[in-house]
Amino acid sequence: MQTIQQRFKVEYNYAVFFTENLFDTKNPLLQDFFNEYTEQGFQRKALVIVDEGFAQYHSDLSNQIHSYFAASVSHIQLAPEIINVPGGEACKNDPALFDSLVEAVDTYGIDRHSFIIAIGGGAVLDLVGYAAAVSHRGIKLIRIPTTVLSQNDSGVGVKNSINFRGKKNFLGTFAPPVAVFNDLTFLRTLDDRDWRGGVSEAIKVALIKDTSFFDWIETNTTAIVNRDEKAMAYLIHRCAEMHTDHIAGGDPFEFGSSRPLDFGHWAAHKLEFLTGFQVRHGEAVAIGIALDCVYANKIGQLADEDLSRILDVLGRLGFDLFHPKLSENDKINLRNGLNEFREHLGGRLTIMLLEKIGKGIEVHELDADIIAQSVDYLEGTKIIHAL
Amino acid sequence: MQTIQQRFKVEYNYAVFFTENLFDTKNPLLQDFFNEYTEQGFQRKALVIVDEGFAQYHSDLSNQIHSYFAASVSHIQLAPEIINVPGGEACKNDPALFDSLVEAVDTYGIDRHSFIIAIGGGAVLDLVGYAAAVSHRGIKLIRIPTTVLSQNDSGVGVKNSINFRGKKNFLGTFAPPVAVFNDLTFLRTLDDRDWRGGVSEAIKVALIKDTSFFDWIETNTTAIVNRDEKAMAYLIHRCAEMHTDHIAGGDPFEFGSSRPLDFGHWAAHKLEFLTGFQVRHGEAVAIGIALDCVYANKIGQLADEDLSRILDVLGRLGFDLFHPKLSENDKINLRNGLNEFREHLGGRLTIMLLEKIGKGIEVHELDADIIAQSVDYLEGTKIIHAL
């Protein structure tokens, strides 16, 4: 019998909107979005899930959302309960939390043509996104990221995940949202660590792809540190744009093993784990970038001047460039992260290093001794703001 | 800030192979397939998971697989353990079974570039497919279906699922396999119910799309009942071909709410549930087809002669056309299935009915009284072989 060759393409299409005061009834953005979903015979619903860490600073949020839907989106039936979930990495470790979200999908009759609206930081978006992706084989997900990191990076991308028995992101899918709404005003209640944290992802993407964006960040470090919203709005938009362009232009669902956007991430993932997530993702990425830039410099790939500019920008933004856990156990703990990174990516180890500012290049091995020397170098820079 | 419009396509591509004695070292098919995966720097692995219901009739299977890999696929590292899981619907109800498969992925270091090979009936393929799809955001899945139903229908498609707290297929994804291997010799150990069961999916697709295929089935009922392998091989190939064509030609990941391939399925799903899965999926589909054909005839849409031919073919193949659970509680239990079907599809109720043999047409409502009359009609046909 002749072999059947199956072949098809699936198209994805979503907008990342930038706005302020999203749930103000005078803001028509969300209303306009839902007005595209008015077919006869459908009763679409929406279930809203909010990061507790965000909700505590926005005590009126639940009322605002109910009022907005009543006034402007009355054709979509809002589930009566707005569900709060704990924020931060911990929420991805708790299978009962995942189960409770799936249970809510059932309780409120959220079907494949209804919406789940996730409001929160990257961890909550990951958890809710995973629950949405696997319930009924995929409910329409709207992401409303509330941190710099999620607005410029994870929240605009195509992944979700939870941890499994302590293994980070072990369970997850590639599942694009139907829309992302980035509200600048939501960033006002961030503490300085989370305001700064997401900037490292912008530096990352600038370093591997866009010299002029790095120049801009370098020029604007003071404005960013001083919480200038206009500067931050530009930084987030440019970073989100480069992130989405990269996804669309390459291998969206990562069938290959190259992952350029993971520049600086192999050490970052390990450091987050080694510190029990006390060092947050963006902070760990800053250290990971610093480490891999020192490494690239030590093997003669990255010029002294470029290295100096990179470390200077990270330092002036307030990032630590070293953490004692990097050195612990004669750096063996850190170096184990390299193999774990390979296992998670699958296939061959592929690490992005810099050739110069604005241009990355992939390598397939790192030397353990030079990693150790790079850690020592960072320790010597004494750029540690608060341990 | 300007809205970012993200848009991309993801391409999927897999072969459905037809063979005999797949794990005989003289059969190069599997070897040829894996020879496409020989890149430098990769150490791909394979984890094999087998349906116990199949394994009990193929006691040498584990040895055969180990021998085949040792002789012909030595560049892929076979996990030392071949895992058996219980077959049938029960395996999709047990979260611990899902967890144990994810645990095995971790234990044996199965990464995104390695393979999970699922051997079994539709329920096992669903469970293993789901575990593969969400582990590391998707491990390459090879399906080796061992029933008529899975070789001609579910096993060649793009879905997977498990049940959640008794809700059928509540959790799942759309995740195409990297290959499907249909081995005709694996069907020899099926009992008559499972040999017959999958034929109802072939009748389904013939009725809505291909008159000449229905004619062929009608002509070959005796050969099929007599377990003629050549006839069955043709039936499976043609049904699988129509199934994969339908997926590629339409809406592979079902973003819309039309599901023509669910012809006969609304009542089938409910009947499976009402009988605690004592009535198997293919058997339930045969009754569901009969019910919807009688309905279409009663509303003047399907000619008497066509209805008669359809019921005759189903009856001659040995399918029951009625089950007492259809009538229970004054048919209210059955009719509830209609709303559950709508909720599962999401959006608007869409039911495929026949206009004539070879041509389906979608409707958006069914009349409760006419459903009841159709059930009574089926009860009156007395085509009940064994209750």
UniProtKB/TrEMBL annotation, chains A, B:
Positions of the 3-dehydroquinate synthase C-terminal domain: 198-326
EC number(s) per entry: 4.2.3.4
Any GO molecular function: 3-dehydroquinate synthase activity
Claim: Amino-acid biosynthesis is one of the keywords in the record: yes
Cofactors (names): NAD(+)
Domain 3-dehydroquinate synthase N-terminal per the UniProt entry, residue ranges: 83-195
Transmembrane spans: none
GO biological process: amino acid biosynthetic process; aromatic amino acid family biosynthetic process
Annotated coiled-coil segments of the chain: none
Keywords: Amino-acid biosynthesis, Aromatic amino acid biosynthesis, Lyase, NAD
Entries under NCBIfam families matching the protein: PRK06203.1 (NF004852)
Name this protein carries in UniProt: 3-dehydroquinate synthase
UniProt organism field: Dyadobacter chenwenxiniae
